């Protein structure tokens, strides 16, 4: 059955029936992705070069089977070349509740046709559904991060089950979703700011030359866009932490929370923990991107195919593993950020907070809450992918 599906796609592309797919034939199949013929042909030529092992400027059936989108076809069940090509470009863009560093690139045709905004809407709604589904684990993570490590708290010395049971006892089952509302609300402004800032920074980097943006330049533009978005929406991050940790009856609404937090320390309190949050952006991005490329290249060398593209499942696994490694490396900064956000009244800053954690709990204390944080990754990715796919179907991006 799988071979038959691959053969049907190959026959769909092989318009002249000569047993090989040329760049012009592939170009004709990419109208939705690239409106201009020159751009379609350029993209098609890159695909051909990636898997053309006999250098005959085309793909025969064996070369086609080895190419990355063969695996994507089997994983997604898609039959349209346009749909497969678009999904391949978005494969690593699913929301697991953490901030993305490098936003999607959209062609001028995609922006003009509405594909860009529909994809952003689909991603935003997928993120909201995914975050809502994994909210209990996220709240448990925040509670563990903010706790002081006593045996009576829902901290590292308590099991995850005991932590969840304690939250249910205190506020009922609905309390497991405390803070989820503001966590979902901030998706829209953060995504919009990041998208606009990313395009702006890319334009400033290339200037008037109109040349293609290089990977390291995308990294810089993405990091700056992420920092810009985080700076503007950071007060919502503080409110999300406070809403997660609130006791029954402490705040009547998000606005009541904001009012009481402001009364506690003025406007400056809404940027408490901002420094460790910003310090974590570049290391996380660098580790994530570097390891992602390293894992893919290692696989290609192992397979003896350094010039071709790895299978899509390799790219997905490499993306997940590199993201986890980035989170592990920068997790202490995220923990200190949460502690500072949750702190009532004055106190020390970043350095004194690190010193206090190490004195009380040792190095392990810097990774409090890592368990539930890792547990939510697989369900978050699965739910986000399924919702993203369904929303794109409802918005007419796929059939």
From TrEMBL:
CDD domains for the chain: EFh
Solcar repeats: 114-204, 213-298, 310-394
UniProt KW keywords: Calcium, Membrane, Mitochondrion, Mitochondrion inner membrane, Repeat, Transmembrane, Transmembrane helix, Transport
GO biological process, one term: transmembrane transport
Main location: mitochondrion
Alphabetical list of SUPFAM superfamilies matching this protein: EF-hand, Mitochondrial carrier
EF-hand domain boundaries: 1-36
Membrane topology category: Multi-pass membrane protein
Record flagged with keyword Repeat: yes
A GO CC annotation given for this chain: mitochondrial inner membrane
Protein name: EF-hand domain-containing protein
């Amino acid at each position: 059955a799988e071979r038959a599906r691959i053969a049907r796609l190959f026959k769909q592309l092989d318009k002249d029936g000569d047993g090989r797919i040329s760049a012009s034939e592939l170009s004709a199949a990419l109208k939705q992705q690239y409106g201009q013929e020159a751009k379609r042909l350029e993209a098609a030529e890159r695909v051909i070069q990636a898997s053309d092992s006999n250098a005959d400027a085309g793909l025969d059936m064996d070369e086609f089977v080895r190419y990355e989108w063969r695996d994507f076809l089997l994983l997604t069940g898609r039959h349209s070349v346009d749909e497969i090509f678009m999904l391949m470009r978005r494969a690593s863009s699913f929301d697991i509740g953490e901030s993305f560093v490098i936003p999607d690139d959209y062609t001028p045709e995609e922006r003009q046709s509405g594909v860009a905004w529909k994809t952003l809407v689909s991603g935003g709604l997928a993120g909201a559904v995914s975050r809502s589904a994994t909210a209990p684990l996220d709240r448990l993570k925040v509670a563990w991060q903010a706790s002081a490590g006593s045996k009576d708290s829902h901290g590292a010395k308590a099991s995850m089950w005991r932590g969840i049971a304690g939250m249910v006892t205190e506020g009922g089952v609905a309390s497991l979703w405390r803070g989820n509302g503001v966590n979902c609300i901030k998706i829209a402004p953060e995504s919009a700011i990041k998208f606009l800032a990313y395009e702006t920074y890319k334009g400033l980097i290339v200037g008037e030359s109109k040349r293609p943006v290089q990977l390291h330049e995308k990294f810089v533009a993405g990091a700056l866009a992420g920092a810009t978005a985080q700076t503007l929406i950071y007060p919502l991050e503080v409110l999300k932490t406070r809403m997660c940790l609130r006791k029954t009856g402490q705040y009547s609404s998000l606005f009541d929370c904001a009012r009481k937090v402001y009364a506690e320390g003025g406007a400056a309190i809404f940027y408490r923990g901002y420094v460790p949050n910003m310090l974590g952006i570049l290391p996380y991005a660098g580790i994530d991107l570097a390891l992602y490329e390293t894992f893919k290249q290692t696989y290609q060398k192992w397979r003896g195919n350094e010039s071709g593209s790895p299978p899509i499942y390799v790219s997905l696994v490499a993306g997940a593993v590199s993201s986890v490694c980035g989170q592990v490396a920068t997790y202490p900064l995220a923990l200190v950020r949460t502690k500072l956000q949750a702190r009532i009244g004055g106190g020390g800053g970043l350095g004194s907070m690190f010193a206090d954690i190490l004195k009380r709990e040792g190095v392990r204390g810097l990774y409090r809450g890592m368990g539930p944080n890792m547990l939510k990754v697989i369900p978050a990715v699965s739910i986000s992918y399924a919702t993203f796919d369904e929303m794109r179907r409802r918005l007419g991006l796929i059939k």
